[in-house]
Amino acid sequence: MNEFEVKNLCHLDDIEEGATKGFLENDAGHDLFFVVKIDGQIFAWRNACPHVNGAPMAWRKDAYMDAKKQHVACHAHGALFEPDTGMCIQGPCLGKALESIPVYVNQAGMVSIRVTDISLLY
Ligand code: FES
């Protein structure tokens, strides 16, 4: 395996502003991580709430934002997170943060993750 080998996830334009999209499902059918697009930038977070042992956060596929589409939400107990820093700003894990996942956007707008980083997600 080449350490520079990447897996393409999607194109930047495939994600609307303020929207989220999950990737790489585990055996239980939950995304391992998700990306959120804020001000044209992509931020990626592990789909694991810091409140309860890494519980999955979406209420349905690709639905990681709160109703106002301002914060990432954990739909188990309502924790809210800043989409660009991952910090919990309301809820039972206040002050804790989501785990950042390294993804890259190339000049053509392709969003990708290094193959060597994928193995660390399982
Ligand atoms: S598991 Fe996320 S807020 Fe409780």
Query: What is the strand content?
Result: 25-35%
* CATH architecture descriptor name: 3-layer Sandwich
- Give the terminus-to-terminus CA distance: 17 Å
Catalogue the ligands. Answer: FE2/S2 (inorganic) cluster
CATH superfamily: Rieske [2Fe-2S] iron-sulphur domain
Main β-sheet description? 3 strands, antiparallel
What number of domains?
Answer: 1
The ordered H/E elements are: EEEEEEEEEH
Structural class: mainly beta
Can you walk me through this structure?
By secondary structure, the chain is mainly β. The chain has one domain (6-121): Rieske [2Fe-2S] iron-sulphur domain (Rieske Iron-sulfur Protein, 3-layer Sandwich), CATH 2.102.10. The chain is built from 1 helix and 9 strands, in the order βββββββββα. The strands form 3 sheets. It has a 3-stranded antiparallel β-sheet. The two termini are 17 Å apart. InterPro entries: Rieske_2Fe-2S, Rieske_2Fe-2S_sf. Pfam families: Rieske. One of its GO terms (molecular function) is metal ion binding.
Describe the SSE topology.
Layout: E1 6-11, E2 20-25, E3 31-38, E4 41-46, E5 72-73, E6 80-81, E7 88-90, E8 104-105, E9 110-114, H1 115-118
Antiparallel strand pairs: 1-9, 2-3, 3-4, 5-6, 6-7, 8-9
The site of FE2/S2 (inorganic) cluster (FES) has 10 residues, from loops.
Entry keywords:
binds FE2/S2 (inorganic) cluster, iron, 122 residues, Rieske Iron-sulfur Protein, 1 helix, iron-sulfur, 9 strands, globular, mainly beta, Rieske_2Fe-2S, three-stranded antiparallel sheet
